[in-house]
Design a protein that fits this description.
The complex is a heterodimer of chains A (262) and B (403). Chain A has helices at 3-10, 30-40, 59-70, 75-86, 99-105, 107-117, 129-142, 157-166, 188-198, 215-224, 232-239, 244-256, and strands at residues 15-21, 44-48, 93-96, 121-123, 146-147, 150-151, 171-174, 206-209, 227-230. Chain A has 262 residues and is an alpha/beta fold. Chain B has 403 residues and is of the alpha/beta class. Chain B contains 16 helices and 14 strands. Chain B has helices spanning 32-46, 49-63, 73-79, 97-110, 124-136, 146-151, 153-161, 176-189, 207-215, 217-230, 246-252, 281-284, 322-329, 340-354, 360-367, 392-399; strands spanning 18-19, 22-23, 69-71, 82-87, 115-120, 139-145, 165-169, 194-197, 237-241, 262-270, 286-290, 293-297, 333-339, 379-384. In chain B, the strands form 4 sheets. In chain B, strands 3-4-14-9-10-13 form a 6-stranded mixed sheet, with helices on both faces. In chain B, helix 2 (49-63) packs antiparallel against helix 4 (97-110) and helix 4 (97-110) crosses helix 9 (207-215). Classes of the chains: A alpha/beta (262), B alpha/beta (403). At the A-B interface, helix 3, helix 5 and strand 6 of A face helix 8 and strand 11 of B.
Chain lengths: 262, 403
């Protein structure tokens, strides 16, 4: 059982998963960000591996990735940082990145390294499901890694079932037809989509991401799924931050609409 | 006529969209419905008699096809062989790019799309897309790197004159690769009404195959033109430049399975392959995923895509179409590299010998004539993919033609 699966076996509602780009704002902020997020009440952390060509990401995450790369972030540095975090925290950790990074590292070596440093799951949005099934499903299972697929409002029902069956840990529900970081209110069409998926009784828990930026969108998402994923809004908060810890407490407090902190 | 060729072949795409180990559709789920919709329908639509009729009529009456196959007498005497030029430079808008955009615009209409997006580097594909959008009366948005917008001002003006909106790509290195990223992101944000006209044999399946099929009109014409002029539809050698590789794909297409025909792909070596300023992907690249397909690309050890360099914006791309990756790695095609300087001199040589100013991209193909050995009666076809008007500023600069 991965830490993600353990989390969902204990808690099925209001899961707060925060995304950040590793190496942003500074190269060595990874540990501080993860540990503070945990203290502030995040249930899970998604670590973005900065990439030169992040196709599914909007401007905010692209920018943070460019900064991170300029800061010198590499997979090797990131794995070392995560290894160190794991000595201090058991929060579920998901890595998000693009398949080219994994290919270049060597797929098998990458999965093994993830297991070794204590990663629980992977989100690789451009890894085709059929290729995963044929080439990597067993390898990832052998390394105790969840693989999380995305579904979108345009994904046909039978493909949702297929992707749910291939996923483990949770299913990532993309809230809207967009790249990450588009800020707008959740529409009735989106609610209809959330409800349609709710009724499908998927085998995995569902987290809703893309466009979740404040308490209102977070609670709407939580009402229709097991929780939500927040990325760009958190990056924007970090961008303006003078004090990362204080920013994180404020941010989680804002999302949950409660006072959090030490 | 183009015919739907669905038999499994050694160098053609397989049913999963792979050329050997290269190709496929490595795309985020957000793009899946669009790409899948296209994949299921492209062959059926392309080979409908009505589609073919319309496509052929436009190629003939609007583009000006067939493009001539010209026996270059002086060039042949100089290299002591028989050199034929496939004159894609004489097409409307000045390059082979329009063969594909005509095809895709007709396809987009049949798919019910009314908003067209495209990426462009030098602006040739952007102009070709803006042209067919004007023709079809469809909205046109072209993504172009901020850096390229600055250095290709005349083509930006052409696109605008044709009614297109040119959107600067401000991410990454702000060149062709980033324009492609922006176009893909736009498509993610507009999943219902938009068709993305990719300009080369790159991108997720079915794009490489679809673009190759539209461009295959080049080698289809070569066959009967050669038969007419030499008595044999097969040349000994075909030479074409490769960035993404659409003109080469078109020139090679009908000869892919005929291994007696030598295929020569010419990459841009920029300032030289060992200078860090090159775009010779097959030499400097390694296996990876770029813009939705598994192919060869220039990247760091950490899998970050590297910025290529070539004086020719059309060859300044860090990847190569999966078909070419397969042709090269399987040994079916031979690769040469031409540097900026070799291409420039080849352009001037062609201009002086034959009265034809080639595009800088095509000039890279001509530069290898210096490096290859030919038999006296060998039939060599060079695909002259575009004309040099757009590169005049570069030629003026290099050859000091202003004084």
């Amino acid at each position: 059982m991965t830490r993600i699966e353990k989390l969902f076996s204990n808690k099925q509602k209001d899961i707060c998963n925060i995304y950040f780009t590793a190496g942003f704002p500074s190269l060595n902020d990874t540990e501080k960000i993860i540990l503070t997020l945990e203290k502030a009440g995040a249930d899970m952390v998604e670590i973005g591996m900065p990439y030169s060509d992040p196709l599914a990401d909007g401007e905010t995450i692209q920018q943070s990735g460019s900064v991170a790369l300029k800061n010198g972030m590499t997979l090797q540095v990131l794995f070392e940082q995560i290894e160190s975090v794991r000595q201090k925290s058991q929060i579920p950790l998901v890595m998000m990145g693009y398949f080219n990074q994994v290919m270049q590292y060597g797929e098998e070596a990458f999965f093994k390294k993830c297991k070794e440093v204590g990663i629980d799951g992977l989100i690789l949005p451009d890894l085709p499901a059929a290729i995963y099934e044929a080439d990597y499903q067993q390898l990832m299972k052998d390394n105790n890694l969840n693989n999380i697929f995305l579904i979108t409002p345009q994904t046909p029902d039978e493909r949702i079932v297929y992707l749910d069956n291939l996923s483990s840990g949770f299913v990532y529900m993309v809230a809207d037809a967009s790249v990450t970081g588009k800020q707008k209110d959740i529409s009735n069409n989106q609610i209809t989509y959330f409800e349609r998926i709710e009724k499908m009784n998927l085998s995995n828990p569902r987290l809703i991401g893309f466009g979740i930026a404040d308490h209102q969108s977070f609670s709407t998402a939580c009402a229709h799924a097991n929780g939500a994923i927040i990325g760009s809004a958190f990056i924007r908060a970090l961008e303006k931050s003078g004090n990362i810890e204080a920013t994180i407490y404020d941010f989680i407090g804002m999302i949950k609409n409660e006072k959090v902190g030490v | 006529m183009l015919e739907a060729n669905l038999d499994q072949k050694k160098y053609d795409v397989d049913e999963q969209g792979f050329y050997g180990e290269f190709g496929g559709a490595f795309i985020p789920e957000m793009l899946y419905p669009n790409v899948e919709h296209l994949r299921k329908q492209y062959l059926e639509i392309m080979y409908e008699p009505e589609f073919q009729k319309e496509f052929r009529a436009l190629l003939k009456d609007y583009v000006g096809r067939p493009s001539p196959l010209y026996f270059a007498k002086k060039l042949s005497a100089h290299y002591n062989t028989k050199i034929y030029l496939k004159r894609e430079d004489l097409n409307h808008t000045g390059a082979h790019k329009i063969n594909n955009t005509i095809g895709q615009i007709l396809l987009a209409k049949r798919l019910g799309k009314h908003r067209i997006i495209a990426e462009t580097g030098a602006g040739q594909h952007g102009v070709a897309t803006a042209t067919v959008c004007a023709l079809a009366g469809l909205e046109c948005i072209v993504f172009m790197g901020e850096v390229d917008i600055e250095r290709q001002a005349p083509n930006v003006a052409r696109m605008k004159m044709l009614g297109a909106k040119v959107v600067p790509a401000k991410s990454g290195s702000r060149t062709l690769k980033d324009a492609t990223n922006e176009a893909i992101r736009d498509w993610i944000n507009h999943p219902n009404d938009t068709h993305y006209i990719i300009g080369s044999v790159v991108g997720p399946h079915p794009y490489p195959d679809m673009v190759a099929r539209f461009q295959s009109v080049i080698s289809e014409e070569m066959k009967w033109q050669l038969k007419e002029q030499t008595g044999n539809e097969n040349p000994d050698t075909i030479i074409a430049c490769v960035g993404g590789g659409s003109n080469a794909a078109g020139a090679f297409y009908h000869y892919l399975e005929n291994e007696k025909v030598k295929l020569v792909a010419v990459e841009a070596s920029g300032l030289g392959n060992d200078t860090g300023k090159s775009a010779a992907t097959s030499v400097l690249g390694s296996k990876g995923v770029l813009h939705g397909s598994r192919t060869l690309l220039m990247q760091t050890e950490d899998g970050q895509v590297e910025e290529p360099y070539s004086i020719s914006a059309g060859l300044d791309y860090p990847g190569i179409g999966p078909m070419h990756a397969h042709l090269i790695r399987s040994g079916r095609a031979k690769v040469f590299g031409s540097t900026d300087e070799e291409a420039l001199h080849a352009a001037r040589f062609l201009a002086k010998m034959e009265g034809i100013i080639p595009a800088l991209e095509s000039a890279h193909a001509f530069a290898v004539l210096e490096k290859m050995k030919f038999e006296k009666d060998e039939v060599v076809v060079v695909n002259l993919s575009g004309r040099g008007d757009k590169d005049l500023a570069t030629y003026i600069d290099f050859f000091k033609l202003n004084g």
